[in-house]
């Protein structure tokens, strides 16, 4: 029942060619400690499914992505992730760009072990033109309505970052928005969760000690492994613990305009352990002191 493991042990479950879902939203609550461990691995040819942030650009820059399935890829205050943009413009990766709701619907279909879910979203747009694998279907009822059949987006592995977890795989998200992390967890064969705080056991019947049980968005049996990673969302935010590191994100984006910029970023921040990374960005205390943005 003890699911505690290291980031390296979690990433060891990911093999080349797999479909990997990354939770969070843009520059918010991304499992960056797990992403950095994946960047240090030899894994390649991944299909990455995400509401994308810096993890997409980094994985593309490292040559680990074959295909992207996404609703957007943005750093929010920096509208377009630069390494993703370079890969997209160069045609270096296959892409399936979806409406945000369609992406959620595909994950929900996979979580319910259905082949598809019907929706009106996407009809009358170029989404189907650019995604010919997405079909339409007629309602079998008297309305005979034409609907889009959003196919399930099944994941081999999901990677998430949460505020609190325990060794059993219970999780709690205390940020203002859980995003669609529960959908990623349920759509995956294996789900690995990194956390800011680790409890021996979260008692969901005692909200005075462990917080609102509604913060537990998905059942522990979906969780394969738990990685204790304080500061593990950096440089993205993890409310209420800390905000995003806009200075680091700006420097990262600037590297995309420089010759050898990705190699320099890798040498400065990705060689060594997660502890080495945190030391290079000012230490855990500096991460936890990052102010939260008003948006």
UniProtKB/TrEMBL annotation:
Pfam families: CoA_trans. It comes from the Bacteria. GO terms for molecular function: CoA-transferase activity. InterPro entries: CoA_trans_fam_I (IPR004165), NagB/RpiA_transferase-like (IPR037171). The keyword Transferase applies. Keywords: Transferase. This is CoA-transferase.
């Amino acid at each position: 029942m003890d699911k505690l493991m290291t980031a390296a042990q979690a990433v060891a479950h990911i093999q080349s060619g797999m479909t990997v879902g990354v939770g969070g939203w843009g520059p918010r609550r991304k499992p960056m400690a797990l992403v950095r461990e994946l960047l240090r691995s030899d894994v390649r040819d991944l299909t990455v499914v995400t509401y994308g942030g810096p993890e997409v650009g980094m994985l593309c820059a490292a040559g680990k992505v074959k295909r992207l399935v996404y609703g957007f890829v943005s750093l929010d205050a920096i509208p377009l992730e630069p390494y993703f943009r370079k890969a997209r413009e160069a045609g270096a990766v296959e892409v399936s760009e979806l409406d945000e709701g369609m992406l959620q619907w595909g994950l929900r279909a996979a979580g319910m072990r259905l082949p598809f879910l019907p929706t009106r979203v996407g009809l009358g747009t170029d989404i189907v033109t650019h995604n010919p694998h997405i079909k339409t279907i007629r309602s079998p009822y008297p309305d005979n309505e034409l609907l889009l059949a959003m196919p399930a987006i099944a994941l081999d592995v999901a990677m998430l970052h949460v505020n609190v977890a325990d060794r059993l795989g219970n999780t709690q998200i205390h940020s203002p928005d859980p995003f669609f992390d529960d959908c990623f967890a349920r759509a995956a064969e294996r789900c690995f969760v990194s956390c800011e705080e680790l409890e021996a056991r979260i008692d969901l019947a005692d909200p005075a000690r462990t917080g609102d049980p509604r913060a537990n968005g998905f059942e522990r049996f979906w969780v394969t492994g738990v990685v204790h990673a304080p500061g593990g969302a950096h440089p993205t935010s993890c409310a209420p613990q800390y905000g995003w590191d806009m200075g680091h994100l700006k420097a990262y984006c600037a590297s995309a305009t420089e010759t050898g910029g990705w190699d320099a970023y890798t040498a400065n921040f990705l060689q060594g352990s997660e502890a080495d990374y945190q030391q290079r960005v000012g230490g855990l205390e500096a991460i936890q002191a990052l102010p939260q943005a008003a948006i």
